[in-house]
Every structure is written in structure tokens, then in C-alpha cells.
Amino acid sequence: MKQIGRANVSIDDSDKTRNISCVSMDTGVKTTVDNDNRVDQALRSKINQSTKLKSILESSIDHTNIELQKMNAIKKHLEFEKNINLKHWNVNTDRRGHRSQRPPRELVHDVPHKELKKQSELLKETQERYDARISDVDRNIIKLKSIRGHLAADREDKRSALDLDKTCKDLCAVDGTMVSLNMLPKNKSVGEPYAWRKSTMVAAEEAQTAHRQAQALRRNCFHLEHRRKIMEKEQHDILQRSLSSRVDQITKLKDNLTAQHAHVEDEISKAYKIKRKLEDAIAEKMPPLNLAKQRYHTRNKRPDRESVHDEVEHALLMQYNELKKCVEDLQSKHHAVCSHVAQLEKTRADLKMNIADKTRNLKLDLTCLGMAPTRPATGASLNSDALSLRPATGSTLGNFNMRQSMSALE
């Protein structure tokens, strides 16, 4: 009976052990299934997120390449405009040096001189602004290239991780394989998952910020060129008007001086005629005067008792005095005419020199007027697709989709 009882107890223990084993097996199977589902769900979520992040990175890289193309184009355009401005500055220097060759009496700080100086200062300031803008563009290009490099490296990492996650998802269990715990990576603590997507989002945000900065810089370049052309056009017009006015003034002065010179020539001709007439008159009066003087001295040789002041001596003295007074009057007039002729000759020489100076000054100003560069247009030439201030075709939609993807990931 005791053996029967012990047999029954053994049977009961065996039943309990079988029941516990069955429960443990069911629990293990359920746990395995739950863990497999959790891993599959995490892998699908990670693959989805990686795909979206990869799309964001590719969109950011595309936009960065577009911005780099535009910035390289704007740099080339700025260097072209800078060279044009430098040529205009050199022309201004040549024009100022050309006008400095004017005669001394014409070398004055007139309106064209002041306007040329203003234009030189404006061109110098514009040249410095172009240098500053080109430096800003260079720094922005370097920044965009650095961002593009980081984005490309992140994209390659995402692509590699995505391939590995897809491979991991497609793996199947191998029967009879037991993985040793020593094969697992060390220092892997169980806790909250790492927010691995934040760095990618930060990089995408930095790329968008750099794109906005590039657009703002292009806008500043557009305003710089537009302002330069407006101011250069205004200064060009003011300078050309002042030179044209100066040329008109010099032409009028030259015509006036030429008329005065002709008048002085006429006066000199008339004065020489009067001088010759006076000389002829003096020459006509000198023989009678000498005759009267000779007669008077001849009669003074009479004896003392005959040397009386008679009617003949009185007549001779009257004739001599009248002829002498007439000759002296003619000589005085001749001296005045000679002084007048000398003054006219001096005036004619001054007028001739002044006319020569005006002629040279007029030639120099006409040459300076023709040395002006082409009148600049007021519209900026930043109108091609490479230099457009607007985003590239489809980039607005791309930015909108990228923002939606980033919001969904957050």
C-alpha cells in the first residue's frame, strides 16, 4: 500500500512538472512572439524615419548645390562689375590728369574739376563695397561647401544604416544556433533610445539658415549694383553737363576774345595810319622851320647899327614860333600815338596768348568730354536663372515638403 501511495505521489509530481513545463513553454513562445513583433515594429519605424531623413538630406543637398551655383555665378558677376568699375575709375584718373595739362591761367578748380573729384570718390567707395561683398560671397561659399560635405556624409551614413536595417528586417531565425552572450557588443546599457535624428534635423536647419543667408546676400548684391548704377548714372550726367557747359563758356569766351582781337587789330591799323600821317606832317613842317631859323640867324649877322628889331625880324620870329609850336604839337601827338600803339600791341599779344590758352583748354575739355565711358543703365543685370533672387523651380515646394517631413519626424 505504501508503494502504491508513493507511486501516486510520483504520478502527481510528474503531472505538476508537465503542467509547469507547458506553461513555461507557452510563456516563452508568447514572449518570443512579442519581442519579435516589437523588433519588427522598431525596424519598420526606423526604416521609415531613415528614409524620410535621407529624403530631407538629399533635398538639402540639392538646394545647397543650387545655392552654390548661384553664389558662384554672383561672385563671377561681382568680379565682372568690379572690373568695369575699376576701368571707370582709371578713366576718371586719366580725365583728371588730362585736364591738369591746361595752361596755368586756365588751371582753376571749376565745376568739372569738382564733379570729377566727386566721381572719383564715388568709384573708390564702390570699389571697396565690391571687395567687401566678394569677401562675403567667398565666406558664404565656403560655409555652403562645408554644410554640403556634412550633409553628404550624413546621407551616406543614413544610406548605409538603411541598408543594414533592411537586411536585419529580412533576416530569418536559424535552427539549432545558440548565440553566446560574449558575442554581443559591450557597454550597451538598456535605457531610453538615443535621439539620433536630432543631429540630422539640426544639420538640415543649418542648411536652411545658410540658404536664407545666401538669398539675403544676393539681395544685397542686387541692391548694391542697382544703387551703384543709379549713382554712377547721376554723377555721369552731372559731369557731362558741367563739361558741356564749360565747353560752351570757353567757346563764347574764345569768340569774344577773337572779336576783341580783330577790333584791336583794326585799331592798330588805324593808329599806324595816324602815326604815318603825323610823321608826314612833321616832315613837311621841318623844312620851313629850319628855313625860318636859318633866315633869322643870317639876319642877326648884320652890323650893330643895323641890328634893329624891324618888321622882317618880327615876321621871321612870328613864322618860326608858329612853325615850332605846330611841330611840337605834332610831335606830342606822335608820341601819344606811339604810346597808344605800344599799348595796343601789348593788348594784342595778351589777347593772342589768351586765345591760344582758350583754344588749348577747349581742345582738352572736348577730349575729356569724349573720354567718358558709356552711360550706365539704371537696371541691374542680375536677371538670369543663375543669379535670380528667387528660389529655383520647385524649391519652394521642396522646402514645404521638407518642413512637413521634419514636423512629422518631430
Number of strands: 0
What average pLDDT do the residues reach? 79
> What percent strand?
under 5%
| Helical proportion, percent range | over 70%
Q: Give the termini separation.
A: 75 Å
The radius of gyration over CA amounts to 56 Å
Order of secondary-structure elements: HHHHH
Uncertain spans, ≥5 residues at pLDDT below 50? 188-195, 389-400
Q: What is the number of helices?
A: 5
Largest sheet: none
Structural class by sheet pairing and helices: mainly alpha
Q: Choose one word for the global shape.
A: rod-shaped
Write the layout of secondary structure elements.
Elements: H1 2-99, H2 111-170, H3 197-299, H4 311-370, H5 395-409
Short overview:
The chain has 410 residues and is mainly α. The chain is built from 5 helices and no strands.
Can you describe this structure?
- By secondary structure, this protein is mainly α.
- Helices cover 82% and strands 0% of the residues.
- It has helices spanning 2-99, 111-170, 197-299, 311-370, 395-409.
- Helix 1 runs parallel beside helix 3, helix 1 runs antiparallel to helix 5 and helix 2 (111-170) packs antiparallel against helix 3.
- It is rod-shaped, with a radius of gyration of 56 Å.
- Residues 188-195 and 389-400 have low confidence and may be disordered.
Which structural traits does this protein have?
mainly alpha, 82% helix, 5 helices, 410 residues, single chain
